[in-house]
Design a protein that fits this description.
Elements: H1 6-24, H2 27-44, H3 49-76, E1 92-97, E2 105-108, E3 111-117, E4 129-136, E5 139-142
Parallel strand pairs: 3-5
Antiparallel strand pairs: 1-2, 1-4, 2-3, 4-5
Helix pairs in contact: 1-2, 2-3
Length: about 140
Amino acid sequence: MDDIDAWVWWLIGAAGLGIPLVMTAMPEFGMLAVGAVAGALTAGLGGGVVLQVVLFTAVSVALIAVVRPVAARHRTQRPQLSTGIDALKGRQAVVLERVDGSDGRIKLAGEIWSARSLDPGRAYDVGQEVDVVEIEGATAIIM
C-alpha cells in the first residue's frame, strides 16, 4: 500500500466515480471524477495532501456550481430544430384547389396536402397564400 503514489489513488478514485456516472447517468459523479483528476495532478506535481484535497473540493464544487445549472437550463428548453409535422406548422402554403371548412388541396413544402380551413365559414381560392396552423393526420389546417 505504501508503494503506490498518491496520484494513483486519486486516479483510482476518479475511475471509481466514473462507474456510477455511467450506471446512473448523473453528471455530478463526472464532475467529482474531474475533481479527483485535479487531485491526482496536484499529487503528481508534488503538492501536499491538504492541497490535493482542497483542489479536489474546489474543482468539484466549481464544476457542480457552474455546469449543473447550465445543463438543467438546456434540459428544460425545447429543441430548436423542429422536424416532421412540427416543422410544417407556421409555414406558408399555396392553395391548389379551393379550401373550405371541409376539404381542399394545398402545396406545402413542395408536397400536395389535403387541407381545410380553421374557420369553417371561410374559404380560400386557388393561388392564395395561406398559413398552416396545425396538422391533423394528413390534413393541414390553414388560415
